[in-house]
Structures are given as C-alpha cells and as structure tokens.
Amino acid sequence: MTTALIMAGGKGTRMDLDYEKPMIKVNMKPMISYVIDALVGCKYIDKILVAVSKNTPCTADYVRKFPVRIVHTGGKGYIEDLSDILSNRKYVEENEVVMTIVADLPFITSDQLNDVLEHYYERDKPAMCVSVPDYLFEKYKITPTLVYQGLVPTGVNLLLANNEEQDQTIYVSQNVELAFNVNTLNDLNLSEHYIKK
Fold it and tell me: Nearest CA to 9 among 78, 61, 87?
C-alpha cells in the first residue's frame, strides 16, 4: 500500500498574501486541487491524506469534496507535523510507504507521479528524494529555495512510516513541471506565464 500525504498546513509567509497558500489560484483553480487530481489519477496511490492546521481552515473546508482524508496537525512546522503523522497509526501503518508532497505544485501530473513511484519501487532504499537539476530553474527564471550539488528538491519525497532515520536515494527528474513549486509571488507570476505559453 502507498499513501500520499499532502502537506497543506503551513502559513506560506513568503507569499505575503492574506489567504492560504494551498488556495492560491493558478489558472482559476486552487493549487492544491491540481495536486489532488494528479494523485487521484496515479495508479500506485491507495489513499490520500491532506495535512491541515489552524493556519489553513479554508483549505480544510475546500478539500472535503475530494476523496481524501483530512489530518489535523499542530501547525508547528513541516518536520514536526510530518513526524506526528508518521507515528500515528490511525493514519498510516508502520513501515507503510508514504509519498509526501507539497500543496503548491500546480503542474504536477499523474504520469509524473507514476514515474516517480516506479523509480522508487525499483530501488532498494527505504527513502527517496525527488529533485530537478538547477539549470531548469535558470532556464525558466524560477528562484530555487535550496540548491545542493546542482540539484533542487521538488517537495516530493518517499519514505517508510516508522519515524526512524532512513537510508535515502535521490531521483533526478527532468520534468520542469516539478520545478514550479510556488513559494513567492514571482513564482506565481511565472506559473501564470508558463500556462499561457
């Protein structure tokens, strides 16, 4: 069984907007809806959890219309909330495969997620980080949040639900859509421009 866990409880302070980051619209649709649609169409995903917090009440209300299970977190931070969920057997079984994914990837598709999961299943490591080369960011003038050895994490990761330190591999995707992790107003403007192209 593979569970998808959408992390949608953060404040999104870098956006400097009055509304919740997962609900920011790209091409007239909230960003989180693109992520949910891609996961629903992914042949390897059995269950979808959406982690919300006191910071994202509108997001919690919006996602009720989708085939997801809402998980209320403390909203202490990404790592803290993720750790709480992975250790809670109401949501995931011990050593269950969990794909964590951020709520702000408006161009993600089911095919891309299937590709990611196929690469994970082919490897013998319990955890996998999905990254894209930094030159894709340069090409599309996107500002990366973190660059390490020429790679940028996408916000998509796989791990086992046991809250232990896990041996990790890195999958380098060439999909530019995974680079559009919308963290700033500039990213949002670039996303709208990308859609028009």
Answer: 78
Residues listed for the chain? 197
Cβ-in-10-Å burial (0-12, 13-18, 19+) of 3 comes to buried
Q: CB burial class (10 A; 0-12, 13-18, 19+) of residue 47?
A: middle
One-letter amino acid at 79 equals: I
Residues 6+ apart with CB under 8 A from 180: 105, 106, 107, 140, 142, 187, 190, 191, 194
Give the burial class of 184: count Cβ atoms within 10 A of its Cβ; 0-12 exposed, 13-18 middle, 19 or more buried. middle
Cα–Cα distance for residue pair 70/143, rounded to 1 Å: 31
Name the pairing type of β-strands 29-30 and 25-26: antiparallel
Please name each of the domains of the chain with its CATH number.
Answer: 2-196 (3.90.550.10)
- How far is the C-alpha of 106 from the C-alpha of 28, rounded, in Å? 11
Residue reference for tokens 């202490």:
76
The one-digit pLDDT tens for each residue of the chain (197 residues) are 799 999 998 766 555 667 788 998 888 899 999 999 999 999 999 999 999 999 999 999 999 999 999 999 998 888 899 999 999 999 999 999 999 999 989 989 999 999 999 999 999 899 999 999 999 888 887 778 888 999 999 999 999 998 788 999 999 999 888 877 766 556 566 555 555 55
